[in-house]
Specification:
Layout (H helix, E strand, L loop, with lengths): L4 E4 L4 H11 L4 E4 L15 H16 L3 E10 L19 H11 L9 E11 L8 E11 L15 E3 L4 E2 L5 H7 L1 H13 L2
Parallel strand pairs: 1-2, 1-3
Antiparallel strand pairs: 3-4, 4-5, 5-6, 6-7
Helix pairs in contact: 1-4, 1-5, 4-5
The protein binds inosine 5'-triphosphate and magnesium ion (MG).
């Protein structure tokens, strides 16, 4: 196993939980929070740029190989917003405020125009200056509900309708979300690349 221990370049507890569950016990994820509580500025214009930037920063702080997840929700009616700005959509006020802002932006928009995709870009760097990061991407298609449903997950999960299961992603069990999600698709690819 090339990476028995990886630093996860994330301060999001929901991601850590999901990614560790997907990786199983052959790779131990350590939070970058063990090394610093300062979050890097996400200055990239794409998911991949931000994922690489976060991975390099965590690797520099820890001296260890690092995995980053940059993800978000791209809503068709909003031209792909909030996209890379998903975490900060309501100016840093958190998940509930982000969800309220999204519902307001889609007020009176009919179901047929409420298509959206969750995007996940994973970047793994072997060291802070790695010239060839491993990059894997996953997309999960759904649509935005008119009101929140479900208690599981995090972020926009209560507003994301999963057609194949006829429920919101916050109504899926954690195990089911970890089979279907954008993050699950990207992680499958990464595991394949790592021979896991
Ligand atoms: O940057 P780190 O520290 O990893 O944590 P973050 O929460 O800021 O993460 P991102 O910058 O990648 O922003 C991702 C946002 O997209 C949303 N998001 C991503 N994956 C999600 C998921 O599986 N379910 C619900 N919302 C998700 C949620 O609002 C996240 O905060
Ligand atoms: Mg972030």
């Amino acid at each position: 196993m090339p990476f028995p221990e990886l630093v996860l370049a994330s301060h999001n507890a929901g991601k850590l939980k999901e990614l560790q569950a997907m990786l199983g016990d052959r790779v131990r994820l350590r939070s970058v929070g063990e090394f610093s509580h300062v979050e890097p500025e996400e200055t990239g214009l794409s998911f991949v740029e931000n994922a690489i930037l976060k991975a390099r920063n965590a690797s520099r702080l820890s001296g260890l190989p690092a995995l980053a997840d940059d993800s978000g929700l791209a809503v068709d009616f909003l031209g792909g917003a909030p996209g890379i700005y998903s975490a900060r959509y309501a100016d840093g006020l958190g998940d509930a405020a982000n969800n309220a802002k999204l519902l307001a932006a889609l007020k009176d928009v009919p179901d047929a125009e409420r298509g959206a995709q969750f995007v996940c870009c994973l970047a793994l760097v072997r060291h802070a200056d790695d010239p060839l990061p491993i990059l894997c991407e996953g997309l999960w298609h759904g649509r935005i509900l008119h009101e929140a449903r479900g208690e599981h997950g995090f972020g926009y999960d209560p507003l994301f309708w999963v057609e194949e299961r006829q429920c919101s992603s916050a109504e899926l069990s954690p195990a089911d979300k970890n089979q279907l999600s954008h993050r699950a698709i990207a992680m499958q690819l990464l595991k394949h690349r790592l021979g896991l």
